[in-house]
């Protein structure tokens, strides 16, 4: 049985920010009940009890939203209490927390450090770009200064965190400036995820939309800067690029979008309802509810709707591509179905081709360096490429 991965939304889609591109706001509009309010402690207990008692070896919990801090710090103290109570077999437990940072203070950051949470802090580039995309709800206005201060608080208390940036058109166009800006801020752990357009709408029509060409150029520009820093022995951690190197080394990437098929995640809404992926929290994908259903019943429903199997229907064009072995086709949510190709292919396909045409040789150079055993003691199993 693979390790359990559980994402919990204790505040449903409630948020104290109003972001221009929010994919979860779009999902909420596409289901019968937009918001499920706030998770009760009873539901939390049932989620942790059912999952921990079923886990083998390791389980990961991630708390996301909306904005999970809205549920309050006492709720997360209950998280730790229930994890201690139901971890009867010495399961290794890891916790992550994705936040916009607006409500973080010393108490939150002290808690994250004490309980070894990995915090993902959402920042979208420079102050100008971030504030144009990530506004405070109501009259709160710009948010960058407060989020940057939150990063300082996390550092002050020794909490582990990384920066999560959504790649919109604006971010893609200014990635060189953003990369240098993050370097000056000391933000050495970075993730970039492509912006998703609204469900059931034509891609590329929103003010923040990415085109395949813009995404390809973004990847090339970012990788070039990152590779130059690698050669100097000082590059930041970049999840996507390090996963590509891991693939070239024959390792399993930890990112589901780079495995070529959807993973076995459980996403839990505030009422206890379970879904197979954060990008598919809609009525037709509902797998059950942890207040009433066991893990095996939820997994049976997953097989019934063939969620994972659907993601394995890869376009013939995609499979025959010379880059497919390392590309793997990207996230299912950004794929379109092509009947004539008998499967799905990413909307960003041409962007990926652009990237691999220009950068695959340098990725292989990095993989070769690792494989030759240079500085093995500093090279972790996750594929980090420290020189």
Give a quick precis of the structure.
The chain is α/β, with parallel strands linked by helices. The chain contains 15 helices and 14 strands. Helices cover 41% and strands 16% of the residues.
Describe the structure.
With 387 residues, the chain is an alpha/beta fold. It contains 15 helices and 14 strands. It has a ten-stranded mixed beta sheet with strand order 9-8-7-5-4-3-1-10-11-12. Strands 2-6 form a two-stranded antiparallel ribbon. β13 (335-338) and β14 (343-346) form a beta hairpin. α4 (106-114) packs across α6, α9 (212-232) runs parallel beside α15 and α10 (239-248) crosses α15. The longest helix has 23 residues, at 349-371. The radius of gyration is 21 Å and the shape is globular.
Please describe the topology of this protein.
Layout: E1 4-8, E2 17-19, H1 23-29, H2 41-54, E3 58-63, H3 73-86, E4 92-99, H4 106-114, E5 118-122, H5 127-133, E6 134-136, H6 144-156, E7 160-167, H7 169-173, H8 175-185, E8 189-194, H9 212-232, E9 237-238, H10 239-248, E10 265-268, E11 273-275, E12 288-289, H11 295-305, H12 307-311, H13 316-319, H14 324-327, E13 335-338, E14 343-346, H15 349-371
Parallel strand pairs: 1-3, 1-10, 3-4, 4-5, 5-7, 7-8, 8-9
Antiparallel strand pairs: 2-6, 10-11, 11-12, 13-14
